[in-house]
């Protein structure tokens, strides 16, 4: 059984409660479908969308409601299981947002942005928006109203503040050497390109790390040798490194991986062409 989702949109409380603006009406519908599609990609192993959402019913009386029904191709059981998974996860996500959670499961940043816009419209023109799922998915409609929108707004502020706050931790970072140098105070600095993300990282070396940076060979710099740097990592914000106070360094590989010339043997076929070599193989077999 295919399970539609009904979205009901109330306009502003200005005597025309059933008359949302065209932008708000279409925006709520479009963003809901984008949330459903985003959740589908996040919950499926192949990360692809296979469901197509169509408007199967529209009620223009008080208030405006549209029924969105998913359709898919393939075995019926698999499609129905996908629909149930997508709708259940979406309903749970909106419930979590109403409860003040900043990022529900399977709501990536893009999907979360669409859900937040649906809440923001309630504070800037709409009275509310109701999402009614099949009773086997969610018994009561999910209500996006002013209290829910304010909770989402506060959760965004808290999450943004946490992400932008600087912090530090002891750990290690791997990367590829780009430049060792001394600063104006005689401190050894190692610059390297982080293996994850590719950002250039600056590490001030002290103690053992100072002598390990001094011991780097010129060929290490030319070949961008891979290193692991230990110490106190200072972050500008979540995951963004400002500098490392390095206390140790480990060279992970000085020998580069073999190149194409190292792997290919020009005498492999003893001078025979590809056709001649294969013919010889078949003859020997």
Short description:
This protein is of the alpha+beta class and 285 residues long. The chain contains eight helices and ten strands.
Main traits of this protein?
about 30% strand, 10 strands, five-stranded mixed beta barrel, single chain, alpha+beta, five-stranded antiparallel beta sheet, 8 helices, about 280 residues
Describe this structure in words.
By secondary structure, the protein is an alpha+beta fold. It is built from eight helices and ten strands. β9 and β10 form a beta hairpin. The longest helix has 23 residues.
SSE string, helix = H, strand = E?
EHEEHHEEHEEEHHEEHH
How do the strands line up in the largest sheet?
A: 2-3-1-4-5
Unreliable spans are 256-260
The fraction of residues assigned to DSSP E strands is: 25-35%
What can be said about the biggest beta sheet? 5 strands, antiparallel
Total strands:
10
Q: What is the radius of gyration computed over CA atoms, rounded to a whole number of angstroms?
A: 29 Å
Mean pLDDT: 84
Question: How would you describe the shape?
Answer: elongated
